[in-house]
Amino acid sequence: MSICPKNKSSKGHRNQRRAHWKMSAPALVKCSKCGALMMPHRVCKACGAYNKKEIIATED
């Protein structure tokens, strides 16, 4: 047997359940090398550095 609801869920009850599915803003930190905003634990898109070391060579 598969899962089958006994009664219809109303639109209000369905929407109350989905009310907590909101998105959150991404956490941003300053790059330690150039100071640009970036996501933590990732290579900086502005300068290509991670943990003060150049990982990706960028054309300036």
List the total number of helices: 1
Average residue pLDDT: 90
Helix and strand run: HEEEE
The parts where pLDDT drops under 50 for at least 5 residues are none
Output the radius of gyration: 22 Å
* Largest β-sheet summary: 2 strands, antiparallel
- The total of beta strands comes to 4
Strand content: 5-15%
Distance between the termini: 63 Å
Helix content: 10-25%
- Oligomer classification: single chain
Strand order of the largest sheet: 1-2
Structural class, by secondary structure, is: alpha+beta
Q: Based on CA inertia axes, which overall geometry fits?
A: elongated
Short précis:
The chain is α+β, with helices and mostly antiparallel strands. The protein is built from 1 helix and 4 strands. The strands form 2 sheets. The protein has a two-stranded antiparallel sheet. The protein has a two-stranded antiparallel sheet with strand order 3-4.
Task: Based on the model shown, name its key terms.
alpha+beta; 60 residues
